[in-house]
Write a structure and sequence with these properties.
This protein has helices at about 20-30, 50-55, 65-70, 75-80, 90-100, 105-115, 125-130, 130-145, 170-180, 215-225, 255-265, 305-315, 330-340, 380-400, and strands at about 5-10, 35-40, 85-90, 120, 145-150, 150-155, 160-165, 190-195, 200, 205, 230-235, 245-250, 270, 280, 300-305, 320-325, 345-350, 360-370, 370-380. With about 400 residues, it is α/β, with parallel strands linked by helices. Bound molecules: ligand PMT.
Length: about 400
């Protein structure tokens, strides 16, 4: 019962995904949580207060000016009661109102009055999610400390495909577990890079590699499950981000470097899993290069910045972890990278073995530090990520004077 004794105030706003909230309440209660539901007026079009009252075993609140309900537990008491305010689904309208600090209905008032963490699970049409106004509101909320869970990508109720689906109830519950159950990395801010980078030759072609992002996304999920507040800087991949992780999407190595360096000062931990392209074309042609011109055959390349080395160069007390993709002399080459790039730990995978490394679901790594090596035999990328997370947690714990720069 990981949520035993935890009090969750679930705000439900008006989207089709509201029909999943009875299942969400059941799962939260099955983990031991006490759940009180606040239903917005438009949410009541999709799910009834009667159903939510039955599954939560508590009266459902809908109105700020309900004298009887206020007499039982006033809205300020309700705001104090909650260990977590969770809004699922959170509509575009709800995100806008939270970002503005509105206080003209029960849920928005509670969000202003609570000192507990607030998590939102957005759900909306993909164009609404990608609209600059929503992007702005979500950025504002993140800056205010609101935790954004998802959304997932996929087929939507409107028939379109894209980002904007609410995470499934079990994914939301896993994220809530991570938020409310302190893990070994609770209070730590961590950044992970994942996926490939793409270096444009012209508007049609680019240089890249086989990275799918799976190992990096698994790493971000494992760190978040251990309690870290994770920022994932991701190259182009087609994966759903882990719940509760902030994602910054980039394309090129230079964009990845900029995204990393803009946020690195506040990070306690950096894990570079991305397969950053080592070189980029010196110039990207503005028009598609014609085969007959011969230009494609003689592309001048320049070296990309080394992101993990740049992070390590400014690291102070930050723990910096790299990955190494090798095809021969794996341990010797990894040791060389560990020292040359100034890393604390490097996980080397032998990518000449087609059953591990790029693209698949499995990996096998050797963790190399200045003190020695530890091999983790072939297993899922998620297990590899969990083992590396355990190692990171013990390395941080061993640094007695380690400062956690910013608790959640
Ligand atoms: O994404 P998947 O399909 O799941 O595959 C996983 C993986 C094989 C990509 C992953 O396990 C892995 O090995 N990642 C590192 C790949 C890599 O670029 O290795 P490298 O030996 O070239 O680089 C060493 C380290 O320097 C890495 O931490 C890398 O992120 C970093 N680097 C490299 C070049 C560069 N310009 N900047 C960097 O930060």
């Amino acid at each position: 019962m990981p949520l035993a004794g935890k009090r969750i105030l679930l705000g439900v706003t008006g989207g089709i995904a509201a029909y999943k909230t009875p299942a969400l309440v059941r799962l939260l209660r099955a983990e031991g949580a006490d759940v009180a539901v606040v239903l917005s007026r438009s949410a009541a079009q999709f799910v009834t207060a009667t159903t939510l009252q039955a599954v939560s075993n508590r009266p459902v609140r809908t109105d700020l000016f309900d004298a009887a309900a206020e007499a039982a537990m006033g809205h300020i008491e309700l705001a104090r009661w909650a260990d977590l305010v969770l809004i699922a689904p959170a509509t575009a309208h709800c995100l806008m109102r939270l970002a503005q600090g509105a206080a003209d209905d029960l849920l928005s008032t509670l969000c202003l009055a609570t000192t507990s963490p607030i998590a939102v699970a957005p759900a909306m049409n993909n164009r609404m999610w990608l609209h600059p106004a929503t992007v702005r509101n979500v950025a504002r909320l993140r800056a205010d400390g609101v935790i954004v869970l998802g959304p997932a990508s996929g087929e939507q109720a409107c028939g379109e495909v894209g980002p904007g689906r609410m995470l499934e109830p079990d994914e939301i519950v896993r994220a809530v577990d991570g938020l409310l159950t302190p893990g070994p990395l609770t209070g730590i801010k961590a950044m992970v890079t994942a996926g490939p980078t793409r270096e444009p030759l012209d508007p049609v072609r680019y240089i890249s590699n086989h990275s799918s992002g799976k190992q990096g996304y698994a790493m971000a999920a494992a760190l978040a499950a251990a309690g870290a507040q994770v920022t994932l800087v991701s190259g182009p991949v087609s994966l759903t981000p882990p719940a509760g992780v902030d994602v910054v999407s980039v394309t090129t190595a230079c964009e990845m470097l900029d995204a990393v360096m803009a946020r690195i000062a506040e990070q306690t931990l950096f894990v570079g899993v991305a397969a950053v392209a080592d070189y980029r074309p010196a110039r990207a042609a503005p028009q598609k290069m014609k085969k007959r011109s011969g230009a494609v055959r003689a592309v001048e390349l320049v070296e990309n910045p080394d992101i993990v080395a740049a992070v390590a160069a400014t690291k102070g007390k930050r723990l910096v972890v790299g990955f190494a993709a090798e095809t021969e002399d794996t341990i010797a080459n990894a040791r060389d990278k560990l020292v040359r790039k100034g890393l604390d730990l490097i996980a080397v995978n032998d990518v000449s073995d087609r059953t591990i490394g790029f693209e698949g679901e499995h990996n096998a790594v050797t963790l190399v530090t200045e003190d020695g090596c530890e091999h983790i035999a072939r297993t899922s990328k998620h297990e590899i990520a969990r083992a590396i997370t355990d190692r990171i947690a013990s390395m941080l714990a061993a640094r007695g004077d380690f400062e956690i720069p910013s608790a959640r």
